[in-house]
Amino acid sequence: MRVLIIGAGLAGPCLAHGLRRHGIDVELFERDAAIDARAQGYRIHINGDGDAALRQWLPAEVYEQAHSTSCRAGGGVSMTGPDLRDVTDIPLPPDAAGLTADRLTLRRLMLRDLMDATRFGAGFSRYELLDNGGVRVFLTDGSTAEGDLLVATDGANSPVRRRLLPDFPVTVQDTQLIYGRTPLTDQARELTPPAALDGFLGVIGPDGRRLALAAQRFRRNPADFGLPSADDYLMWGLTAPASTYGPELFRLAATELRELAAQTLVDWHPSLSALTRLGDPEYIVPGSVQTSRRPESWPSVPVTLVGDAAHPMPPAGLSAGVALHDAGLLASRLVTGQPLPDAVRSYERDMLDYGFASVTTATRNHAGDY
Questions:
Q1: β-bridge pairing 77-80 and 200-204
Q2: CA-to-CA distance for 301 and 272, rounded, in angstroms?
Q3: What pLDDT, on the 0 to 100 scale, is given for residue 368?
């Protein structure tokens, strides 16, 4: 069997490791020209199911290094208002426990042993189904590849999904985000609310503005494992109605986004706008908020979807864990030796059930309805 994977984020490498361990030929295709071509996420939480997938399918050494470089988080999830006065702890379900990590560090660890099977600068263009039951994929670098199964792990705006499910019900909400990270200097630590240093803090305003704050404090520096050195930082994400940011949000430079975030928080506690103004421009990006509904039909072809490509959801600390769970589930079905169409259908049946249940939960949590 030969499996072609579009997208070398987290779920794609997890799936690739699991399949290669069982002798299945795998190739990953990534649109970015290099592993560090752009900022790709900050501190992420991976729930228990996602952590279990990493433990089961990654090489033991890679999994151990992922935990060694994870976040020294001691607190849970808390909520407060713009004045930061009253902080309320939010009880979490048992399956919320897992791994909190720096996404870029985790991705570097996962891809290190897959470089021979990863082609950078080769984004997805289109695919065609072959008479022999396989699939041919056309890449943006002009090349093609053939395999028995095409797996899309290429995110919420997946072009593979657009080809497979052109009527997929996805909604872009009327809220937008500015993501950033601020180095945890002494000054930034003094400005950061204690609940955000130890865990995740949501600051909820009465007018649709919401600020997420969470510190990434490495247990061990990634340099200890041959990766680029990394310093502790505060991740932040500012959600606001699209009308607050205006129509030019996605055209602004990083420094302009940083100032827009600070101005959006100008009537909140002064430490919050100060923290955003200390943000590193290299890691400040705009984002949209998407949600989705389960499609009425799903074609039985040698093409399937994993993670946000299958079930886009708002940012609420769930998507990474669900995507890795998808990857682990698909790997477990593909290595059984059952006929490939049966294995894929079995995966999709279960994935659609829990995946869209997670979409509902993420949509509720993102709105602050705990």
A1: parallel
A2: 49
A3: 60
| Closest alpha carbon to 303 in 340, 252, 249 | 340
Show Cβ contacts of residue 336 under 8 Å, excluding neighbours closer than 6 positions: 343
Assigned token pair, 277: 């103004």
SS3 state of residue 306: coil
Among residues 345, 348, 341, 343, the alpha carbon closest in space to that of 326 is found at: 348
DSSP string computed for 27-81: EEEESSSSTTSS----EEEE-HHHHHHHHHHS-HHHHHHHHHTSB-----EEEE-
Contacts of 339 (CB under 8 A, 6+ apart): none
Q: How far apart are CA 159 and CA 171, in angstroms?
A: 16
Helix (H) / strand (E) containing 146? strand 144-147
Amino acid identity of residue 211, one-letter, is: L
pLDDT of residue 329: 98
Please report the pLDDT score of residue 34 as a whole number: 83
Q: Indicate the burial class of 216 (C-beta count within 10 angstroms; 0-12, 13-18, 19 or more).
A: buried
Question: Is 14 within 8 Å of 328 (Cβ atoms)?
Answer: yes
Extract the tokens encoding 70. 């994870």
Q: Is 347 exposed, middle or buried (0-12, 13-18, 19+ CB in 10 A)?
A: buried
Look up residue 3 and give its amino acid.
V
Residues of the chain with pLDDT under 50: 370
Q: Which of 8, 68, 90 is nearest to 316 (CA)?
A: 90
Residues 6+ positions from 82 with CB-CB distance below 8 Å: 203, 205, 209, 267, 268, 269, 272
Please name the helix (run of DSSP H) or strand (run of DSSP E) that holds residue 310, with its range, or none.
none
H helical segments located in the chain? 11-21, 48-57, 60-68, 103-111, 159-164, 186-191, 194-198, 242-245, 254-264, 270-277, 319-334, 340-366
Encoded tokens for 358:
């997670």
